[in-house]
Amino acid sequence: MTLPDPRQAKSFRFVRFACTRGEAQLVYAFDDGPELVERIGFPDAPALPAARKAAFDAALRLLHLIAGVSYYKAGAPGELIVEGAPLDAATARLLDQVYLHGLAEFAYRNRLDLRGRIRFPHGGGAPAAAPALGLGRRTLVPIGGGKDSLVSVEMLRRLGEPATAVWVGESALIAACAQRTRWPLLNLKRTLAPELFEYNRLGAYNGHIPVTAINSAILICAAIAYGFDAIAFSNERSASAATLEYDGHKVNHQWSKSLEFERALREHAKAHIAADLDYFSLLRPWSELAVARAFANEARYDDVFSSCNRNFRIRGERPADRWCGQCPKCHFVFLALAPFVAKPRLLAIFGRNLLDDVALAPGFDALLEYRDHKPFECVGEGRESRAAMQALSLRPEWREDALVARFAEEIAPQLGAGELGLAPLLAPSAEHFLPLRLQRALHEAG
């Protein structure tokens, strides 16, 4: 069957959702075209107590609405149709935010203005306040394969918090990191509708989507299904900084990792799903550099972790090594760790010295926001990269490396002294949603 071009569609429909035998089916369509069915697996989920059924249904509906962003972007039509019960105004506003800000980079790259297209319809009355479900004191900790979630694991381990390492998808690298935690494990499944890949092959719109928003909605369903009262992501405060501003609109590659999104989703979950479900980021008070400093204290993950995005493509070639050495994530993680990790250990992790390769200068310049904007990747702010490079330029073991020497000679003289200090960037922020029982973890880990 030849698929219609979604770019010609007038509407995107949220058709229906259901969950049977531990598998959720999320169904979408463009106009009256073929149904697109995404499947989410909750392995070995226990029988759902009657008291939690309404909460799980509300969580599943939210997942249906948020996960639709993966398919909507293929055509980005001007009408959104939500079949079934009408949305209330607050839920529609949340979804407007998720789609508009979560697709800002997609819109920028495809030269689309979504501000007039994304309006979720609403007309339903405000639902009753969600009750407390008596969820057990247990925390789901999403593992992403990189340093951040592993820092969260060690912080919670020191506090003796009961927790489970959870991840979505089939990544062998993430599975290896999760297994290294020596915690209970929960691997949730996500299978995209196969038609989406065919749409992409035929030239549909494609680009970045707010994956963390989707995974967050999946984990809210999981928390209700398995009986957890907390979901602790590992997003640092640097994630709230915009990548650039375009046509009066801030474009943030990490928007669904930002404090703005965290606040909106946790408020929705407490008001509409379960009053005793806590959604937050354990690392929110910290900069990327503060997270790197904490990671440097624990070497048990050196041979399994990776932040290289080439390891996490849904489809496509993956590098033989855990670190490609060419992408912005490799460059940033190397630079962020360098002030805190002994040089021989860092070179052993990456297999080579990225700061002594002049061919990589353009990539590091983008991190420094020198003659370029910050890359569209989950990397720290430019001021963090500049402070890290300055710190290395003062150390005998690093200062003669090609890119460090170039920074000292060419770039640092153009910056003010206030730009270059590490200490201000390592201090925790007071803006976060950490439960009181976890706040001392910051002081112990710092």
Q: What this model shows, in words?
A:
- By secondary structure, the chain is α/β, with parallel strands linked by helices.
- The protein has 2 domains: 7-281, 3-Layer(aba) Sandwich (Rossmann fold); 308-426, no CATH class.
- 39% of the residues lie in helices and 13% in strands.
- The chain contains 17 helices and 11 strands.
- The strands form 2 sheets. It has a 9-stranded mixed β-sheet, sandwiched between helices.
- A hairpin with a 2-residue loop joins strand 9 and strand 10 (249-251).
- Helix 3 packs antiparallel against helix 9, helix 5 crosses helix 10 (288-295) and helix 5 (147-159) packs across helix 17 (436-445).
- It is globular and about 65 Å long.
- The protein starts with 10 loop residues before the first strand and ends with a helix.
CATH first level of the largest domain: which class?
Answer: Alpha Beta
Query: Could you tell me the radius of gyration in angstroms?
Result: 22 Å
Runs in which pLDDT lies below 50 for 5 or more consecutive residues are: 314-319
Strand content: 5-15%
Q: What best-fitting shape do the alpha-carbon axes yield?
A: globular
Largest sheet report: 9 strands, mixed
Percent helix range: 25-40%
Tally of separate domains: 2
What CATH architecture label of the largest domain applies? 3-Layer(aba) Sandwich
Tell me, rounded to a whole number, the average pLDDT.
92
End-to-end separation: 58 Å
Oligomer: single chain
Give the total of beta strands. Answer: 11
Q: What's the SSE pattern? A: EEEHHEHHEHEHEHHEEEHEHHHHHHHH
Quick summary of this structure?
The chain has 446 residues and is α/β, with parallel strands linked by helices. The chain has 17 helices and 11 strands.
